[in-house]
Design goal:
The protein is α+β, with helices and mostly antiparallel strands and 458 residues long. The chain folds into 3 domains: 14-161, 2-Layer Sandwich (Beta-Lactamase); 233-306; 308-458, Heat Shock Protein 90 (2-Layer Sandwich), CATH 3.30.565. Helix content is 51%, strand content 22%. The chain is built from 8 helices and 14 strands. It has helices at residues 10-58, 73-77, 154-201, 220-268, 272-306, 315-332, 351-368, 424-434; strands at residues 60-63, 66-69, 87-93, 96-100, 115-122, 125-138, 141-152, 311-314, 336-342, 346-349, 374-381, 385-391, 438-444, 448-456. Strands 4-3-7-6-5 form a 5-stranded antiparallel sheet. It has a 5-stranded mixed sheet with strand order 9-11-12-14-13, covered by helices on one side. β6 and β7 (141-152) form a beta hairpin. The chain is rod-shaped. The two termini are 35 Å apart.
Length: 458
């Protein structure tokens, strides 16, 4: 049988997709958090710088022909909250430098806007600068006073570094949580498919009932197609079994008529060649008739196995009835059919199938046993199981073929001219398998063959 091709696992694909999405989301969350934190930190620093510059600007007065500045304590103290930060300032009256750090950078164009924030390098460090301006009255008219306040960004960088580490930890924790959730989601999503797989795989080879279990709507087309396939397959099998049964039935009747006429013709003729030809014809008719009969039996067994009946069966009584039914057949060959031990054992099963299985094995035993010998049937039982044995005094089974004799249309190499179809042991094994039992074929040294039925307790 060609192996089933596998092109990856749906569970693995779903899990990888969820993990990839979680990783992308974790990275996105990290960058979003860092962007927001950076903006918030920048806005906080700008607000403090703006407030400091404006407090200095508000203290400016023109007194005695010059600008007087009274630095408020809060103007720079609010910038000293961060350890290791440095603060710089510069005050200009238009192009005239008044106080502070003369080389503190100005915005592009040399003049500050009404309110401007920018970053620059100063004294080897990166600083953030806030510049504000206002017109003040002087003895020469309105003049523009500019105040610039700068602060290093060491504290902001340290805060952002801490936020970055925290964000990475949160992102990693989020990813680990996403892994666990992805595993749970993948299992939960695939569970209906697993249940469907288990439900179908547990069925027997002839169980073609439609799948009726509820499934997610995405799986409805699959289940519908599966049910449609099983319906078509069941219909095809039913037609095949019906055809075999009908063919066997229709063939067996005319064969019986032909055999009767051939027997009559053989008794009336005196020609040796004609007698030999008619004898061969009768043998061939018997072979065909038996094959047709066993095909009919096999079709019936197959049909009943699809819906196995569960009745309480007394195994000892069933064996006794079957032996009595076969006794006339055995007496025609002067074979003694004995049942010395029939211990009581009750099981749940189909009595018709069980009797059919035993009839086929008994028929084989009678056919292969020489005239004047004995076929013995025994039932030995305890509370755990029962063993039914049918032993004959025939040629036995070829040792190298025992494992294959239960196959359809398989006959032993020592069958010779004995009429048979190779279905008797097949039917018996199928019946035993359906009842949870087993069948074993063996030889008794120097005596003959033995077929054993094992029945577990119900």
């Amino acid at each position: 049988m060609k192996p089933t091709l596998s092109r990856g696992s749906i569970r693995r694909r779903l899990l990888l997709s969820l993990l990839a999405s979680a990783a992308v989301l974790a990275v996105a969350v990290y960058f979003v958090v860092m962007s927001v934190a950076s903006q918030v930190a920048q806005q906080s620093q700008d607000s403090v710088l703006d407030a400091s510059a404006r407090s200095i600007l508000d203290s400016a007065r023109f007194v005695g022909g010059q600008i007087s500045l009274d630095f408020p304590y809060s103007a720079l103290s609010m910038l000293d909250g961060v350890v290791n930060e440095r603060v710089f300032y510069a005050i200009r009256l238009e192009d005239e430098f008044l106080s502070g750090y003369a080389d503190l950078p100005l915005p592009d164009g040399g003049r500050a806007a009404e309110l401007g924030f920018f970053s620059a390098a100063f004294l080897g460090e990166e600083v953030r600068i806030a510049s504000v301006q206002r017109f003040v009255a002087t003895d020469v008219g309105q003049r523009l006073l500019q105040v610039s306040v700068a602060q290093t960004r060491m504290g902001q960088k340290q805060a952002l570094a801490w936020i970055s580490r925290t964000s990475m930890g949160i992102g990693f924790g989020f990813f680990l949580s996403s892994v666990l959730l992805a595993i749970l989601v993948a299992r939960s999503t695939i569970r209906p498919l697993d249940r469907l797989t288990v439900s179908v795989s547990r069925r027997g080879p002839k169980d073609l009932r439609p799948v009726a279990a509820p499934v997610p709507k995405e799986m409805v087309p699959l289940v519908t197609s599966l049910n449609s396939l099983m319906k078509r397959l069941k219909k095809s099998l039913t037609r095949s079994e019906d055809f075999i049964a009908e063919a066997a039935h229709r063939v067996r009747t005319p064969l019986a008529i032909v055999r009767t006429k051939a027997e009559i013709a053989r008794h009336r003729t005196q020609d040796a060649a004609t007698i030999a030809a008619l004898s061969e014809m009768i043998h061939a008719i018997d072979d065909s008739s038996r094959t047709a009969g066993q095909l009919l039996d096999h079709a019936m067994v197959t049909f009943r196995l699809d819906d196995l009946a569960k009745h309480e069966v007394d195994l000892a009584q069933l064996v006794a009835d079957t032996v009595e039914r076969q006794r006339p057949v055995s007496e025609l060959k002067a074979i003694r059919l004995a049942a010395p031990v029939l211990e009581s054992f009750r099981l749940k099963g189909d009595p018709i199938l069980l009797q059919n299985a035993l009839l086929n094995v008994l028929d084989n035993a009678i056919k292969y046993s020489p005239e004047g010998t004995q076929v013995e049937v025994c039932v030995k039982a305890d509370t755990e199981a029962a063993v039914l044995t049918v032993c004959d005094t025939g040629p036995g089974f070829p040792e190298d073929e025992i494992d294959t004799l239960t196959g359809r249309f398989t006959r032993g190499g020592n069958a010779g001219d004995v009429i048979g179809s190779g279905l008797g042991l097949t039917i018996a094994k199928e019946v035993l398998d359906a009842h949870g039992g087993s069948l074993r074929i063996s030889n008794i040294a120097g005596v003959g063959g033995c077929v054993t039925f094992f029945f577990p307790s119900s």
